[in-house]
Amino acid sequence: MSYLKIAADAVFDWGTVIGFLTIAGAIVTLFTLITGLDSAFRWFAKRFLRRASPEALLSKRQKWKEELGEKLPARDEYGTRGEAIIRDVARMDVYPDVEHSFLHGSSSFKVEVKNVYDKGLEVFIAMGSRIVRGPGGKWIRDDRAAADKSTFVLPVGRIPGELIESIDWDFDRVECLPQIFCRFEGVRGSPFEDVVWYRRSEFEKGSHILVHDYHPKLPTVFDRLLSEIRSRLRELQFWGRKAHGFRAGKGK
What we know:
Structural class: alpha+beta
Order of helices and strands: HHHEEEEEEEEEEH
Oligomer: single chain
Helix content: 25-40%
């Protein structure tokens, strides 16, 4: 790329390139952190200052449970009731692009719907894992464990009715799936009040059983921040190698 070659020609040594990229990375990271803190303040204000009455909560939960129960397709042999797009109502104009944030995650993502539950909707949110009984009888993750010596579990996010703002049942133009607009004010900046784990039932095909005593640690805001910093550093290393390659090629 011509602009990279111009940038490479403008520097005198590799140390200058590293210094420039380090400063640029620090600026980007600082900007991301400030943006995240602003989002955290907004989340705190919404979470603790906007409290609905018990009657309003019950009414909203019941409304969505009835609508979802009626309009979702019947459960298939795998235990799912179709697919849907979960979208952050505060970032709805970003779609179909996806905006990532270490405080709020992706602005939209596709899920397989499990079913309604007492407060709202349950959705499968990721591929499953294998767990085994560790010392003291505690479940621990071990994806290398043999199938006959482990239990296969699936993570399920629980979206309470009060965090659902609207459902567009007309298929969207990108995924041809219904869209569920939520407030991402749940755990870890998600629309989930909790993430639980289910195992497949050996008695009824397509049915799942809740694993009550498995509670793996969820990623924290600090974990997401570290992931964001690592991503920025990898990006800087990539462009640094590009610039170094242009300079080395010019010297030959």
